[in-house]
């Protein structure tokens, strides 16, 4: 399904305390990774509502990363556990739209793991390239026409 020359558009909801800082460390350390990700700083991964992901796809994203503090290290104590509990629900919702599970990743990346952040973006970009463009309008046409 991959298209020649396709460069995926990725949206990343990054926890302000860990993952966003890990992304910053990757940049400061000059670790190379694809420029496909548009980062969005959120106060906590637990703040990421499933509608944010649906809106990202509807706005043209081919993949979404939700990244937060490691379990047990959340600045807000239980925020990442909330994200962890929402994730399976989100996957079920996206399946109903016909969206592959590999288009949304949930990862725990601390402030000191710039290399893990860069590896995650490399791996995600490659996986989304294999899946090809999302084409939200085409995938959701049958659902929207039925309403």
Describe this structure in words.
This protein is an alpha/beta fold and 147 residues long. It has helices at residues 19-28, 50-58, 79-96, 114-131, 136-146; strands at 10-15, 37-42, 63-68, 104-108. Helix 1 packs across helix 4 (114-131). The model has no long low-confidence stretch (mean pLDDT 93).
Which tags fit this structure?
147 residues; alpha/beta; 4-stranded parallel sheet
Helix-strand blueprint:
Layout lengths: L9 E6 L3 H10 L8 E6 L7 H9 L4 E6 L10 H18 L7 E5 L5 H18 L4 H11 L1
Helix pairs in contact: 1-4
Quick take:
The chain is an alpha/beta fold and 147 residues long. Helix content is 45%, strand content 16%. It has 5 helices and 4 strands.
CATH class: Alpha Beta
Helix content: 40-55%
Helical stretch count?
5
- Report how far apart the termini are: 29 Å
State which percent range the strand residues make up: 15-25%
Question: Do you know the CATH architecture?
Answer: 3-Layer(aba) Sandwich
Q: Poorly predicted ranges (pLDDT <50, ≥5 residues)?
A: none
Total domain count = 1
Order of helices and strands: EHEHEHEHH
